[in-house]
Amino acid sequence: MEQGTVQIKGYHVEAKTGETAGSATYRAYREADGARVAMKLLHADYTRLADITRFKHAYGIIKRIDSERVVKVLDVEEHGDGLVLITEYFPGTALSAETLRKLDVRAFLDAAISMAEALADIHRRGLIHGDVRPPNILLGAGGQAKLTGFGVDSDVTREKEEIYSTRVLSEVLPYTSPEQTGRMNRSVDYRTDMYSLGIVFYELLAGRKPFEATDPLELMHAHMAVRPVPPAEIDPEVPDALSAITMKLLSKNAEDRYHSASGLMADLEECRRQWQRNGRIESFSPGQYDRRDLFEIHQKLYGREGDIRKLIESFEDVLQGKRAIVLVSGYSGIGKSSLVQEILKPLAREKGYYISGKYDQHNRDTPYSAIVQAFDSLVRQLLSESEERITNWRGAILDALGSNAQVICDVLPCLKHMLGEQPPVPALGPVEAQNRFNLYFQKFVAVFARHAHPLAVFIDDLQWVDSASLGLIKTILASEGMESLFFCGAYRDNEVTPTHPFMVALEELQRGGLAVVNIVLEPLRLVHLLELLRDSLQITAGDSLADAILKKTGGNPFFVKQFMRHLHETKVLVFDPAAGWRWDLPQIARLEYTDNVLSLMAETIRRLPQATQEVLRLAATIGNMFDLDVLNTVSERTPEETYGSLDRALGEGLIVRADGRYRFAHDKIQEAAYSLIPAGDRPAFHYRIARLLLGKLDPGAGRNLFDIVNHLNSAGDLIHTAQERMQSARLNLEAARRAEESAAFTAALNYLEHGIAMLPEGAWTSDYELAFVYHTKKGLMESLCGRHDDALATLGGCFDHAKGRLHKTEVRRLKTNVEILKNDLPAALEEGLAALRAFDIHLPPYPDDSMLAAEFERTIAIIGDRPIASLVDLPALNDPEIAALQDLLQEMFSPTYQLGTNNFGITVMRILQNTIEHGISRNSIYAYVNFGTILCARLDIEKGHEFGRAAIRLNEIHPDKKSESMLCNMWGAWVQHWKDTYENSKASLRRAIHSGLETGQYIWAFYSTCNACMNSLLRGAHLREVLEEAKLYLPLCKLDKFNAITWMVGAVARYAEEFGAQADGEPTHAAWVDVDAVTEEARRINNQASLYFLNFFDVFAGVFQGAYEEVAELWGSTDPGRLGMLAAWHASPCYYYYGGLAFSRAAGTAAPALREAYLARLEECARKVELWARFGPASFRHRSLILQAELARVEGREDAGALYDQGIAAAREGRFLHDAALASELCARYYLDLGREFLACAYMTEAHRAYARWGAVRITDRLERDFPRLLQREATHRRAPRPAELDFAAVLKASQAVSGELVLDRLIETLLTIAVENAGAERGLLIHPRGAECDIEAEVVTVRDRVEVSLRRALITPADLPPAILHYVMRTRETVILDDAAAPNLFSDDPYVRERQPRSVLCLALVKQGTLVGVLYLENNLTPRVFTADRIAMLELLASQSAISLENARLYTQLQQENIERKRAELALREREARIRCLVDSNIIGIAFWDTDGRVTYANDTYLRFLGYSRQDVASGNLYWTKCTPPEFHATDERALEEMRLTGEFRPYEKEYVRKDGSRIPVLLGSARFGESANEGVAFCLDLTERKQAEERQKLLLNELNHRVKNTLAIVQAIAAQTLRTTDSPRAFAEAFGARLLALSQTHNLLNEASWQSASLRDIVCAELALYAEGDAGRFSLAGQDVRLRPEAAVTLGMVFHELSTNAAKYGALSVPSGRVEVAWHVNTSAAEPRIHLEWHEMHGPPTRAPSRKGFGSRLIERDLKRQFAGAVSLEFLPEGVRCVIDLPMDRVAV
């Protein structure tokens, strides 16, 4: 607001004197007396009612300050969008960069004493200034200072909150006290002003601030922990006394500063006296004149030194990467919160964030209350940062959350202020929604818990935690991906038993590897109380008082402090000026209400004014934390009155401000206030609050709903009318829904139980729908809370009341779901089958194969000859009962699949049949891909693949995130693998895992994880890689509560570990999975799937262990061919492959009858694998060849050896290490049986090496044991020492260090450090091969016993290492060791070896699955033979792990980069989509999305308006752009589509659409391909109707102009010809012709004015007569109505009146002054044909007579009017003048 715009009644603004982001200042004068005043306009946010009210209340007190040192406040007024503060005008100058120069001592003392005096006057009123800094200090004449600008101003403007703004960083934070930062465990009192004043003093004395920083957190940390250099050390001229005074003011602890401004004044006055007297100031101890009578309890924590140390050590451990939490326990008031806040100082040092939340015993049904409270404060902290930082936070959060940001925004609405509106997330079931929420909240937390800015989270009163919060906390703490999350919880140990859910969860977390640091707080002892009394009362002997306090309080710190305050308030503890503090011990013993802290606090509250007591009771009823506007609503008073009552409690410390809200300073205070409400009156309090909040708040906004409903539910029987009970029921239902959406199932169940109690007795009759929703939801919530039997009982009762098939099916489906959650699969199957009977589907639990075959034939018949690809184009399903049936059929997946019943196939086929008959639904994706599975199991691979592709295409057309994980899993592990590679199938499975986690579909994430691990095993990945992958999935496996699915991950890991263990080493597979327990459970419920999977592992392991007979015996117990869809599983072909090998080998030792059976099985297996090899040669060709070799062997054919060779070569080509090794072993056995030992030795050696490359150490040991003669050389050749010879602990530690690191740079550093330290090298290089080139990734050197690693990433040069050695190792993959490079060797001629002469050299290849991923080069230039056998053995053991880890780290780094780029692309895509959506919704042009089949899939309102269709037409699929196109445009459309197919777009062209009503609309049409799809586009359409109409008008105008010009020329030609005939000279011709043309032009002018549409008859007559008026209007008389003439009639009549007037002027009435002319006309409508009758009558002119010959005029009138308009004309030459009568038909002349 500029000068002149500020209008405050009674004041006149003169000028603006200053402005900041939050305020503006003006100079003005008061109109009443002309007094000068200053005005400060504060830009206030009126939504912050509490701040506005507090501001007004504070200034109400400030106005009463009457001090010469404080600018007088005159008034506070509201103005526009802000508040205006009117103060006295003080013509001083604010301290600034110019005035804040060093002052001399005298000037400093004068100003300093004025400032201290000002603070003394402010503090005397019980106020805190809160913003002492140079701009608020005005220096007047004589160096006198005045204070202005209280800190409460910034509460309104919020200026101080933006700590990263340049102004706050330079002008505010430098003057902030440690406790004001909010990062110290200290409350803010008047002593904060002392610290800020000390900063000002320091600046005045030293010429600079004590702390400077560019980061606000650094500056805050300096205030808290850095001691400034004393001013006297900066400038020796500063007196030591003034330096000491300043340093005392700058004490970090408020207790060490001055206790009063008057004490400061006394010291300054003494300094001034000395200076005035002596010109110097002697040193003295500052504070000697300070007040001692102030009762202030020291805020130090007593007796907690060890606990604080433990807390900070735990924080340091977390910073170092340790997974640990701290739990602080103890009684209420023991000081748990105070202890935890000691973390603030070290956290500030690390630039971390501290957030806290607290559970409320009275609001335990509000889900996530403490977590929301904590993270809400975090978001608000972030919103106060700079725009640049907010942008960075926004990007980081969106990168982490992706398209699921709305999940977090639903719980933290304030996050939208940072992220903006987010796209909605797909609706999921409650379990999936809970999983999704937990996952993405975990990701959200991880954004902030970083090394650069640790996050400390403190959650208090965990004894009252709700179950949803507990689940979320478990998820967060179980995550191993948090870099720097310091979680600290507190609970009352006397209220928590070992069975409390929190303690149970804690035990589970500890079992998962989370370290828990327990800090149990004990009561204070006598020694601690003595220390407290000495510090607070400045006494030396207080043993008796300490003992009395200890007896009364039991050493509870909160009770101690409250009791001491009580002693002071009741005058039992008093200050004696002469003797100090005194107390009355007998009186202490007699004090009432001090038996416990609750009684004491109740008594404290009773001593407050009645209004304050009332407001505290209401606040306690609301909760531990409350908003002022809510309190104001329930107190039914004005905000000012409410705050006035609350202010007393604030002053007493009973209530504190926190993040713009208010809370009780301690639970006991809230309990005491609540206890003052008689128990019988409490329901009435809650009822009153609920009704008032209902009238004031929007239940749909934020968490208002929970507040309202919680109060209603506490109102008891006061809700008794039917209307109120129904309202309560509906509100409880909505609260339950909201709680369920937030995955707070226990809270949702509580709301449902309350709501059901509110329903009328006959609700099933009177309010059926409401009762149905209540009971179904209640049953589901009971199940999700683990109360499965209660859920079944609830749903059973609901089923009895359910009406109609739709509702009964829904209940049955829910019961099926409950049985699945209960892990009772047979019961789930039974319930599902019972539900199907309602649809006349009668199935037994285990249908035989004939039923399955019949269902298959029926399905094939229904499909008929439809192309499978066309099934994606079916219409949408719109039958709710069929939809319910399909939901039920899909719900039966788990029991039918796990139990191995044919019902799986039948249920899938029923959904497929329904889809074809009734239309597509989301269940169709499930049906298509699983029917593809069934077809593949029946060996119809091609058609199965087509159905799988159809499912993928359907999900692309109708995306369903909920189905995506299921689809990718079933596709990758059951369909895709038949024709595609294992690598591509693995990619699908990874997508399935990601999607399952993203959407909370954990069950499909579990299946996909198992299949991903199995994929690695099947493709022969290195066993170490398989093991590492299984470890990677362990956190996910822990989420499988019953281990019903993910046990397979453990099984894969178990065999990988078992094969990789040394023969004399014990594998630790027991830790992975208890196979016996899995087997027992599978047999108990007849889980055929699990039994088959278990059998597969036994077959797989048995073949590689050489146990062929055992495998052959057990193989047939679970033939997948008899297990329906299980035959399609990606391991099933391998089951036949390994089974065939076992049959082949076992047949050699079997009895004759059994041998025949085994050989028949072998032939069957070989035939099937050969068939599959035709479809998927990449995966099955080598297996088919190996089986064919075995067949040839047993048949005695000579081609067996060649077939083995082909199989081995194919396995190597496909990198199937395990199968190549196995085939080599079988071939060796074959040649050994033939007695060809030389060949057998060669193949067995190759098998041994291949097994070693696979990582199967135990299998190589078996070969050495079984074939010692063949492998004697291999076993002894450079054999590594056994584990007993190695430092096993060192190997294990090194392996763990390498395998546990995913960040590439840190991995390289770890690897090289381990290599150098363990090998004894001086220098080392890590080489990264890149095709033909090589890079040095890093170099390591030892310097003075210290290992230094530098990341180089440079090309190799001959100066770095011996190129010959490197090339040899890269080509052969062999290890090169030069024990003494100075001695002659293979590489002696290498220039590097020759010139550098290294003593010891080791070069080792790092190989993963046959691929070289790195080379490790080590050298020692001091000592030969450094690289001993044990060191080399250790490095070789590490080489495999290092190769895997390097590849994983590089992949991880690449994935991180790709992930960042993908998320950036997703963000750009979302922004692009938002812009597109904005364009579409703006409706500026018509926009439609279409496909090449002609269907319009979406259109905006403008496009629909163009075509006359509705949105329902689009939704129903009835709008086709092809059908709206007239036939003449079809060819043009085809050309445009062809152009789009080639270029991605087509140029705009004009066409027409046929609207729904049959009319046509011209449009300009352009289009482009939508995304990457070749079959979809987006069209942009402009309506050309107006343009076409304009063009038509233009065409008509041109035609009209052409016609008009021709007519005009004809008229002119006729006029010229007629004029020539009637004139006798050129001059006469020119005059007559010119006059006639002028008349013609006048008529044209009139027509032009009306766009040649018409002209007024009156205007035409007037125009022709105007020339003859001669200023006498009375010469003419015109009478007639307004008639509009056509253009041709106007031209002709214009000429007629021209001729009549010209003739009158020459010969008639107008030739004499007395002559007059009357013109009259009227329209005769009575005749059959309306006609216009015109008369021209001349009077008072000379006598007239008829001319001797007819001239131009006569002919025009008599001939042309008749001929042109079929008119009647009479022209008479009467004695009194000419009379002309014209009669014309109206339809010929008039418009």
TrEMBL record:
Keyword Hydrolase attached: no
Name by which UniProt lists this protein: histidine kinase
UniProt keyword Isomerase present: no
Residue ranges annotated for the PAC domain, each copy included: 1547-1596
Domain Protein kinase: 11-276
UniProt cross-references to PROSITE patterns, sorted A to Z: PAC, PAS, PROTEIN_KINASE_DOM
Pfam (any one): Pkinase
EC number: 2.7.13.3
CDD domains found in the cross-reference section: PAS (cd00130), STKc_PknB_like (cd14014)
SUPFAM superfamilies according to UniProt: GAF domain-like, P-loop containing nucleoside triphosphate hydrolases, Protein kinase-like (PK-like), PYP-like sensor domain (PAS domain)
Keyword annotations from UniProtKB, A to Z: ATP-binding, Flavoprotein, FMN, Kinase, Nucleotide-binding, Phosphoprotein, Transferase
